[in-house]
Amino acid sequence: MFCAISGEPPVTPVISKKSGLVYEQRLILKYIQENGKDPITGDTLTEDDLIEIKANPKTVAPRPPSHSSIPSLLSTLQNEIDASVLETFTLKKAYDSVRQELAHALYANDSANRVIARLLWERDEARTALASLRDSMGQNGATGRDAEMTDANNASTSEIRGMPGSYIATIDETSATLSSTRKAKMKRKPEGYTQASSVSQFAQLESVPSLHTTRSPGVTALDVSLDGDLLLTGGKDKQVQVYRRSTGKTIATLKGHSDAINKVLFVRSLVGVEFGNISENGEVPEWAVSASADHSVHVWKADGNEKNAYSLAHSITSFKKAITGLAVHPSGLYFAAASEDGTIGFFDVSSGERLLQIEASHQYTSLDIHPDGTLLAAGTSSGSVVIYDVKTGQESASFSSESSTSVSSLNFSENGYLLASATSSMVEIWDLRKLSKSGTIAVEAADAKGNPLPITVQFDPSAQFLAVVGSDVRIYANKTWQLLWSSNDAHSAPITDCKWSWDKGALFTSSLDRSVRSFAPQQS
């Protein structure tokens, strides 16, 4: 037997009627006199609740010694030890109780902070919506219920680091030049460019197989040069490749990322460029950018050597999560990148300097820049699309999708009127003139196991067609959103990206089957 207080064998053992615990008689009596309860269970306890345990043989206690004797000193020391044991036991119980209360208080404080933060965010959102409603009612009734305008002076839900003034003039000049020539350019119907009447005759013209390595197979990102001769691809193998179609050779394999490539783009100016009239003559674009799941963006510069067309110029590592969106400004001088960490950066291509940063409560999943270069659209994991002013970083408008799944792809039409957004179950087209939805296309993409696949959308340079890829390839007519052509056997694995060429209006697609394929009207 052991005392429940001291942990030692008791000299005079007693047992509690209520708890059944064994105590040293002198210790438990002292504790009852001071506290009136059981030291272990905390229940009310009196001397009558204690039963002495009859031990056999029982040693007869000696006569009480005088205070001057050695036995008296020993007895005094024993009493002090007993008091220390009782005090230590009480302190341990109090310590455990305080720890539990402190933990509860910390959890309660954390929960309160979260609730306060959410309420503040909802309050700011309500204020923004109210301001939007007042503005829209004051202007006209054309604004759709799908769009929400935001007061430029209210940035309570995001932190903006504005762009230096020296770069704003270039953006304004590019916008003025492109917008002044766009209407005339869109009316052109150049000979040899894909027309609406010929889309039904689309067929596969070329297949570029065995791109990237077999260790981590799959082409995850694609871009095409304006003349359609160069393919820029990113893969699950963490590499970026440049392939020349005219020679059938890979002219560059760019290494440096430590995770799969999510986006790749050639950097080129669209000022003075007209679809159907391209004169690149196979020249390698001066710059290319790649974004990866390793949280970084790499900027590659052409060095004029056909055997090693590009070398690393800058590596941007300021993001904390995967880069999910990448877009090039039409001036060819800047590019933007969006990350799952809730930040968007706007960078100078030649220096790698960050000119603008937007930090918001969203988790960004896609990105595109308006053809005029003044607006930036970002898709989020909640299904909403947010449009920002490139020069100030302020939110200009937002669209709420019918789907609550993440926006996997965004693309502005070249005429600047429309924005297409894709989720796992639908494609929605937004009219930027009316800030309302222009159309909805039901599209569901799934792999062989039935798992949903991300959908990619891309307007062609003439703004006549919208390509939609996922598990198959589809081309829809602008305005009517009628299906013009589709192919269910374009690839043997999920399709990851698509791009139109500016010279002939051919459609290029990439896939996890390690191939890039091109589609165009079949010549009779």
TrEMBL record:
InterPro entries linked: Apc4-like_WD40_dom, Prp19, Prp19_cc, RING-Ubox_PRP19, Ubox_domain, WD40/YVTN_repeat-like_dom_sf, WD40_repeat_dom_sf, WD40_rpt
Pfam families attached to this UniProt entry: ANAPC4_WD40, Prp19, WD40
Reaction equation(s) it catalyzes: S-ubiquitinyl-[E2 ubiquitin-conjugating enzyme]-L-cysteine + [acceptor protein]-L-lysine = [E2 ubiquitin-conjugating enzyme]-L-cysteine + N(6)-ubiquitinyl-[acceptor protein]-L-lysine
U-box domain boundaries: 1-80
GO molecular function: ubiquitin protein ligase activity
Annotated WD repeat ranges: 212-253, 316-357, 365-398
Subcellular location: Nucleus
Similarity annotation: Belongs to the WD repeat PRP19 family.
Name of the protein in question: Pre-mRNA-processing factor 19
Species of provenance: Meira miltonrushii
Source organism phylogeny: Eukaryota, Fungi, Dikarya, Basidiomycota, Ustilaginomycotina
